Amino acid sequence: MTSKVSHPNYFGEVYRLFRKSKNFTQKEAAGNDISPNELSNFENGKAMLGADKFFQILQNINVNSFEFQYTYNSYLEARDLLLFDVEVTDAYRHNNISKLKSILKKLTQLSSQNPQKKKYLLDRINVQAVLSILSPDFPMPLADRRYIQNYLLQIDEWGLYDIILLGRCASIFDLKTLYEMVNQMISPTQMSTKIHYIQREMIRTVLNVLSIFIENDQYHLANQLVNYLDENKIHEYHLFEKLTFIYDKATLDYKKGNKNALSTMKQCLEILEFCECFSTANAVADEINQIKSHN
After folding, report:
1. What is the pLDDT of residues 245-272, one digit of tens each?
2. DSSP string of 129-168?
């Protein structure tokens, strides 16, 4: 089923990019699901397809929904600030406060202009949280903290956006609330955890929360997350996450009194240096020195 559209149809444009890049004709892409004429109208922004037909023609050109969503978001990026995850992550890693302030300004404006769009508000608070982590000059407003806390605690099914949001904002919550949130996120009842790229992001968020518990000497809470990660084996393809987990477990053991664990921590540092992950290696080296001075 198709319907006429009165606004830009970037879905069709992005689909056409995929189809042409894979050398499929419109007839081949349409298959037996829609007519070539319907596909042409969709690609040229004259009509929209129903969800069932859209997913069928995606399969016809060997593209999954995650690939399409990623490219679609990137395509929109030139037109609006809808996709900013990469920019925020990059700015955080490089301590680029000016860049984060610029993103925050744009999101504040978008949120004010579109008060009905919760996503803009969540995105703004997301960036505000990252800024508050990097600099005491940007404290997290209490109202923002409460808003995002209520949002996360009320989620029944955690998606990729929510998992990343918790990972970024984890340090702004009290430890009891943080544990409650991460427990909800990793609940076996969550359907999305079966999707591989969501599994990986969930592991990253759990690792981030684990490091917060270790830093605050919450060994009981930390051990529960260690048990979770031990049971849900981190795939060897995800070497950085696997190395981070080894380092975190060694840090936990060291802080609990096992001085031999320091050797494992240093081995992790050497691997980072060998892989030329110098920014991360410098941060780990500083952390090891700090932990040694307090234990």
Report:
1. 999 999 999 999 999 999 999 999 999 9
2. HHHHHH-TTSPPPHHHHHHHHHHHHT-SS--HHHHHHHHH
CATH number at residue 57: 1.10.260.40
Q: Taking a C-beta distance cutoff of 8 angstroms, is the pair 58, 64 a contact?
A: yes
Identify whether 182 is part of a domain.
no
Which are the contacts of 16, defined by CB distance < 8 A and separation ≥ 6? 43
Strands (E), the chain: 2-4, 47-49
The answer as to whether 141 is a domain residue is no
Alpha helices in 216-260 (DSSP H): 219-231, 239-255
Helix (H, G, I), strand (E, B) or coil at 61: coil
Among candidates 7, 91, 15, 13, which has minimal Cα distance to 57? 15
Separation in Å, CA 244 to CA 35, 184, 186, 252: 51, 23, 19, 12
d(CA 89, CA 58): 30
Domain containing residue 248: 234-295
Single residue among 56, 77, 98 that ends a domain in this structure: 77
- The structure's pTM equals 0.79
Of the three residues 77, 112, 132, the one that is the final residue of a domain is 77
Given a cut of 70, whether residue 2 has pLDDT beyond it is no
Q: What angle do CA 17, 86, 88 make, to 5 degrees?
A: 145
What Å distances lie between residue 68 and 16, 17, 34, 272, CA to CA? 11, 10, 19, 33
Number of domains in the chain: 2
